[in-house]
Amino acid sequence: MSTKAYGAHAANKPVEALAIERRAPGPTDVQIDIAYCGVCHSDLHTVRSEWSGTLYPCVPGHEIVGRVSAVGGEVTGFRIGDIVGVGCLVDSCRRCASCEDGLEQYCTNGFVGTYNGPSADAPGHTLGGYSQRIVVEQRFVLKIRHPEEQLAAVAPLLCAGITTYSPLRHWNAGPGKKVGIVGIGGLGHMGIKIAHAMGAYVVAFTTSASKREEARALGADEVVISTDAAQMQTHAASFDFILNTVAAPHRLDDYTALLKRDGTLCLVGVPASPHPSPSVAGLIFGRKTIAGSLIGGIPETQEMLDFCARHGIVADIEMIAAQDIEACYERMLRSDVKYRFVIDTATM
Ligand code: NAP
Ligand code: ZN
Ligand code: ZN
Q1: Angle between the N-to-C axes of helices 160-170 and 186-198, in degrees from 0 to 180, rounded to the nearest 10
Q2: Where in the chain are the domains?
Q3: Residue 224: CB within 6 Å of ligand 1?
Q4: Which residues contact 271 (CB under 8 A, 6 or more apart)?
Q5: Rounded to two decimals, what is the model's pTM?
Q6: Which pLDDT score is estimated for 159?
Q7: The domain 161-292 is classified under which CATH number: 3.20.20.105, 3.40.50.720, 2.40.37.10, 3.40.50.300?
Q8: What proportion of the chain, given as a percentage, has pLDDT over 90?
Q9: Does domain 2-159+296-347 sit in CATH 1.20.58.1120?
Q10: What is the mean pLDDT of residues 178-202?
Q11: Average pLDDT score over residue span 121-140
Q12: Alpha helices of the chain — where are they, by DSSP H?
């Protein structure tokens, strides 16, 4: 079925209106009329081929919410009219050890991303949520239990929410733990809200002095301007866990220095060029770890959505029209977004 979408034909071409084809729903497929789609920094990295390997035309978008408009004959969990979400994954091998553990993002045979992944559908790769409709295998569709009027602000949970929730859970953020969140963008602002709701003592690190007061309103117990060495020094060797969401290269030693013995600095930001190599001494003195984490699997994404619904957590969003995506990318590059752009697909 022909579907209105926004995407780019090449790395140096702007995101613009185009028409794509969606398959008719197969027996286990759910067809979703997309209401809103969040704009993740990964969309920008991909559509401009900053990570290389982008397939064109590229239709980004993996923070998708909408309403079920058709289901295949073998679909059990969803009915027409249900409010649902789709995140960063639309398929995986479904049988490797990671898939069996519900960690499809670590599928050893390669997961299928919501965009830029391999697909039997035209044009041979997946096309994402900057579009009015998507067809997804039921295992990869999430139930939304927030009130419907919050739907647009739920969209960013599908990537920014799960990408912060998963490592916070894995490294046991909770009461008695001092947790840092670095970078208050789409991911970071969700990280602050979620770590706070988990009961951790939360310190936000920002390069933007203008975000200081707001970070406290988001749930940070303290806010540190990360370019101020004296402020950084007051937190030396005190953190159990630091989650770093920054999308640009920077000195990781500034953060390993803030970890307690056995503390972990987890990277989720994926800059287009490498961070300066971290100092070995900064790790061995204190048995510290630098780790990474990739989004989250489907069961944990559902757990995160339900956790956020229970705690009344949604993203702070700025709703945009599809025609404004390029301008919003430029603002994102200036750290000028509070805190997630969400496309109203009705504007397509
Ligand atoms: P975003 O909204 O642009 O936020 C990034 C934040 O990083 C900015 O708001 C800014 O916060 C800070 N920052 C930017 N440039 C900086 C610099 N030069 N030095 C220090 N801080 C800087 O991006 P996002 O959507 O949250 O995504 C963040 C990164 O995570 C991207 O690289 C994205 O691709 C990646 N990502 C990874 C996963 C995963 O599974 N691992 C999933 C989704 C996204 P302040 O103004 O507070 O300093
Ligand atoms: Zn994302
Ligand atoms: Zn697998």
Answers
A1: 40
A2: 2-159+296-347, 161-292
A3: no
A4: 246, 247, 248, 249
A5: 0.98
A6: 98
A7: 3.40.50.720
A8: 99
A9: no
A10: 98
A11: 98
A12: 41-47, 97-100, 151-154, 160-170, 186-198, 212-218, 229-233, 253-256, 281-284, 298-311, 325-333
CA nearest 324: which of 16, 2, 12, 3? Answer: 16
Q: Are strands 64-71 and 29-38 parallel, antiparallel or unpaired?
A: antiparallel
Query: Residue written as tokens 């990869």?
Result: 140
Tell me the mean pLDDT in the region 66-70.
98
Q: Which residue has the tokens 């029209």?
A: 321
Q: Ligand 1, residues 42, 202, 243: which to mutate, most atoms within 8 A of Cβ?
A: 42
User: Residue 160 in contact with residue 63, Cβ under 8 Å?
Assistant: yes
**Does residue 167's CB lie within 6 angstroms of at least one atom of ligand 1?**
no
What span, in angstroms and rounded, lies between the C-alpha atoms of 34 and 83?
Answer: 10
Give φ, ψ of 63 to 5 degrees. -125, 75
What are the structure tokens assigned to 153, written together? 């602000």
